[in-house]
Amino acid sequence: MVIYDNLFLFSLYSIWAMLIIGGILTYFGYLYYIESSKTTFLLEELPFVSILVPAHNEEKVIEETVRSIMDFNYPIYRFELIVVDDLSTDNTGYILEGLKEEYKGRLRIVKTDFKTGGKGKANALNIGLKYAKGEFIAVYDADNRPDRQALYNLVCELKKDRNLGAVIGKFRTINKNKNLLTRFINIEGLSFQWMAQGGRWRLFNLCTIPGTNFLVRKDILDKVGGWDDKAIAEDTEVSIRIYRMGYRIKFVPQAVTFEQEPENLRVWFKQRKRWVKGNVYVVFKYLFDRSLIKSSAFIDVIYFTLVYFVFLLSTLISDCVFILGCFTNLRVGIYGNLVLIWFLSYIMFILEVAISLSLEKEEFTIKNIALIFLMYFTYCKLWGIVSTMGVYSYLKDRVLKREHRWYKTERF
Amino acid sequence: MLKKIIISLLAIICFMIGRACAEDKRDRVLIIYDTRYKFGYDNDEVLAFKLALGHFDVDVFEVSEKYYQEGYLEHFDCVFVLGLDEEELSSRVLEDLMRYKGTTVLIGTGFKEVLLREQFGKNIFLGKNYNAVDVYYRDLGFSFNRKFGVSDNNFVDFYDVKNGQVISYFTDGKKQIPYIFKYNNRWIVTRYDSEGTTFYILCDVLHDVLKKEHRQEKRVFVRIEDVHAKVDVKKLRSIGDYLKAEGIPYMIALIPAYKENGRIYRISDNRELVETLRYMQQNGASIVLHGYTHQIRDEKTGEGYEFWDIKNNRAPSDDMDKYMEDRVYKALLECLKCGLYPLAFEAPHYAINRDGYEFLKRHFSTYVGHIQTSEHSFCTTSYPFRINDIEFINRLIPENLGYVYSDNINEILKNIDRTSVVRDYFGGFYFHTFVDIDYLKKIICELRDRGYTFYDLKQEENYIKLKDVCIKSRDGKIDWDYHKRIDIKLNFYDIQRSLLSVFILLLTGMVVILIHSIYLRRERGW
């Protein structure tokens, strides 16, 4: 029984630790919000920027995306758009040809063939990178509707500070009102970005590239050799390499893009499972990498290790203890006001998320707040399931020496 | 899809919470009482009675007559009404009882009106009788030990039972005065005692009331009492040798530290004693922890109380949890150090309050002795059978035969006659090491001749779990586990407290931030 009690204690402490980390990040995220809302964006000399958009069967969304990018509040002769049409089998190519006519000279279409293409996003980006002429490289996913000001704000921040390797913006959900899932994703996105990214930047000058809406120096990309096409989450992986070179990545909340989120659980599961596997890949690649220890990105690697191994394990243990307690006579021999502890954790979670909602004009509604209460038991549990599946699947792939197959998120 | 999953997740959670809250399918029993104490006494009679029901594997609830709500008893399979004061039963309860179809048991006084009703067999009250001398049950007569207490509490409500069946009665030399009688599924007990023969008769009748036939067993235990660091090791050894030779299992009530004139002598200081105790442990003895020092303040071990402040009639500490944890943990470590593995607990002089019992319930599977059934003074109740899982008791090994102090064998045999009116009677007596061993030999021979066998505690599943100490027994085998954890874990309370304050600090911070943020929103006109 001592083992059982110890397991329970372990899970109790690590869940607390996680919540306390969350609380601290929220605090610094808020601080960063206050500070950054005073930033002004001004630049005299605008650099040339290449915008990369990898596209694979994106007929539903590609036109809108190209148009919003072309509509950037940025001098038209100072940026180019490169769409990498990665073996699309639908009308993507046709639509792009039409657009090419319209935006002569500013839109470049790179088509991959069966030798070079079809190997996922990182590969497509690497191909696009070969054609890029800009000093800075911006990346947008094919489903994005960036805000007109987004690029300009990103460029201003990156240009200002030579220590920055990249800057990232914020993303919001277009289809947040579609159903319960997208509403949850919307809330999750807000709290994850504002609080986690903002807080980490403020505390450790640390951010990870979220896969879209970011700007990176081309010379750095060339030096690191582009994206790692074996990585499952190429964005996180490249972030760590940027940090290893001694550069930083900054969060610029004023650069906003709107993106589509999964509208059903099947797609959500696949997408998130890939994220989890990607992060676990990073853990395995860098946890024992000594060259990284001095860099602040190592904090991220440790953080991922904590999340996917320690914290995940402890939530599983705590669920088991709960279920065993319900159905059997197995009891934990630890006493103390456990209900109070549980309740405080719940309140903590709600407050953390509520604060991030309050930073957006239209998100701080009764409905959304009610959703937070529900989220703790539902969406968070789903995350637990996805994480378990992701970690398991990654380990299985590793043991069986299988390569990960890229899964492209479906559009709606 | 998501909605479905959410709904099913919620359903599962609800189900599990429901399951967690749901009772096992045990009979539900209600006690309705008018007052908890007999006039002039401190013993919590309701508690004493409730604990007795712990023998029957039922769920017991209690409600005061004052707060009784109409119709409440319909939720129960059986209802006990305890009348301890002279007042008649309130009409609210009375009317409910008339309608109630389940088993009803009226105990004590104040039932004149109820018993007149047809449902209870129209028994006419003939007055109070003060002259009862003997009590008869199953053709056995016992003398009715009347107590001369503060008030004249020795009366019996005398009813003329025409329709019912008398199960036990008193006599005053001339006539029979019904003690327990039944009419259909309604039982009446005309007098309530929580001690003595009448209590034991009631305890036996409860088997019929609750329809729980228990198997008869003739088993008693022997306990060697107050074994401490200054005990006469030779005598102890001879007791161990004798019991080993006879093949009799027994218990040792062990006090790990002996305090005298401010100095503490630990058992581990006395090598010979430790060896003797280990020898006994291997040859039939189960060790029962009998406190740490069996005293408080500057008293001498064995004379003082440890978990009850007898001078002020209160608990020795306001934080009994900490107080007990401190002492019991020290005691356990001392035992482990000597290779001795206690399996149960017995409070010195049985004196301990509810908080203390609750602490014990969390850490000990088994308690031996009497139960102190009062928060206000040192009153104990001794039970004639084992009690499981009720209130603050996990398992009680009851002691009810007294102790050997000289050639008082007959006294113990008389006690055994009294208590064995209970069909599955269980009990024991204890023996001090300083008493002549011949007396012990005598009583054991006598008990053997009468067909009694001796109880072996370690054959049962017992456990002690306190912090990092874990001792378990099963089928005579003892397992133990002791990890010296790092301090951080040893002190779960402190870490919990400090974490809690960090948490509350953070929470306050969050609230402040949220308010600030809402204020900013207002300012911006969002």
UniProtKB/TrEMBL annotation, chain A:
Gene Ontology MF: a single term: glycosyltransferase activity
Which ranges carry the Glycosyltransferase 2-like domain?
A: 50-224
Q: Show the stretches that span the lipid bilayer.
A: 7-33, 301-327, 334-357, 369-395
Which Gene3D superfamilies does UniProt cross-reference here?
Spore Coat Polysaccharide Biosynthesis Protein SpsA, Chain A
InterPro entries with a match to the protein in the record: Glyco_trans_2-like, Nucleotide-diphossugar_trans
Give the signal peptide as a residue range, or say none if absent: none
Q: Return the similarity comment.
A: Belongs to the glycosyltransferase 2 family.
- Quote the protein name from its UniProt record: Glycosyltransferase 2-like domain-containing protein
**Organism expressing this protein natively:** Caloramator proteoclasticus DSM 10124
Automatic annotation (TrEMBL), chain B:
| GO biological process annotation, one example | carbohydrate metabolic process
> What domain of life does the UniProt record list for this protein's source?
Bacteria
Spans traversing the lipid bilayer: 499-520
Q: Does the keyword Transmembrane helix apply?
A: yes
Q: What is this protein called?
A: Uncharacterized protein YdaL
Signal sequence extent:
1-22
Q: Does the keyword Nucleus apply?
A: no
Pfam family name, one: DUF2334
- Species of the source: Caloramator proteoclasticus DSM 10124
Q: Which UniProt keywords apply?
A: Membrane, Signal, Transmembrane, Transmembrane helix
